[in-house]
Every structure is written in C-alpha cells, then in structure tokens.
Amino acid sequence: MLYINNNIMINKGMDMKTTPLFGEFFKQKRIEKGYTLREFCRMFNLDPGNISKLERGLLPPPESREKLDEYASRLGLETGTTDWYQFFDLAAASRGRIPKEFLNDEEVIKSLPVIFRTFRNKKMTEKAVAELVEKLRKT
C-alpha cells in the first residue's frame, strides 16, 4: 500500500504538496490507545510540542527508521500488520519518498513511470493498464 499526503513542505527550495495524513493517523492511533497528548508524551518521555506539531502536519515524520520504529511500538502497531505498513507508508509519502522496499524491486521501479503518468491524468493504453494492475496484484 502506498498512501499520499497534503501539507506544504519545502524540499531543496521546491514546494512539495503533501497532506497531514501521517499526523492524523498518528493521532488516531494514540487516541485509540486511550492517551491524551500529554499522557502519551509523559509516559514515553516525548516532547508534547513536537508530537502536537507532528500530528497537525506542521512537523514532518522523522526520517530515522529507529525513531519511526519507536513511535510505531509506542502506538501499539504490530510489525507486518496493515496499520504498521500504513504508518510507514504515510511517513515515506509525507516526506516525498517511495518506501525503500519498493525501490529494491526492479519490476516496481520499471512500472513507476506508468504510475506517475496515471497520477498526472495521462492516457494509458489498455495493455499498460493491464500490466499495472497485474504488477500491483503481485506486490
């Protein structure tokens, strides 16, 4: 699964549109665990100001895999579950990155131009659509 994001982030002088979906997901999972923002931060020795900014999309998700693993664990996300993948996919997307496991797959890399054209509303041949669907099913 790949999720796309929407707030504005500056990346090497260029505006990149993203959405606060990562922060919204983070907040949703925190609330599902029954924690207020302050309780969560106190329990895990986190800065409430930074977590609040993260949840509101004012601060991008950390790039460090270790920090993301720490947050996922504290939110009770079990490795390999749909929520765990969504957490990491949203983090990557909000930073304007493609998740690393996709970059290691040559077939996925070859299909990215087709996906990008699709997102740009360019016409695709029926054969290209069929190939894209088949590749996505295999992922």
Structural class call reads mainly alpha
- Measured distance between first and last alpha carbons: 9 Å
Shape: elongated
Give the fraction of residues assigned to helices: 55-70%
Order of helices and strands: EEHHHHHHHH
Strand content: 5-15%
Low-confidence parts, pLDDT < 50 over ≥5 residues? 1-18
Radius of gyration: 17 Å
H/I helix tally: 8
The tally of beta strands, per DSSP, is 2
Biggest sheet strand line-up: 1-2
Q: Largest sheet, described in full? A: 2 strands, antiparallel
> What is the mean predicted local confidence, pLDDT?
81
Task: Describe how the helices and strands are arranged.
Elements: E1 6-11, E2 14-18, H1 21-32, H2 37-44, H3 48-55, H4 65-74, H5 82-94, H6 100-103, H7 106-119, H8 126-138
Antiparallel strand pairs: 1-2
Describe the structure.
By secondary structure, the chain is mostly helical. 59% of the residues lie in helices and 8% in strands. It is built from eight helices and two strands. It has helices spanning 21-32, 37-44, 48-55, 65-74, 82-94, 100-103, 106-119, 126-138, and strands spanning 6-11, 14-18. Strands 1-2 form a two-stranded antiparallel sheet. A hairpin with a 2-residue loop joins strand 1 (6-11) and strand 2. It is elongated. The protein starts with 5 loop residues before the first strand and ends with a helix. The model is unreliable at 1-18 (pLDDT under 50).
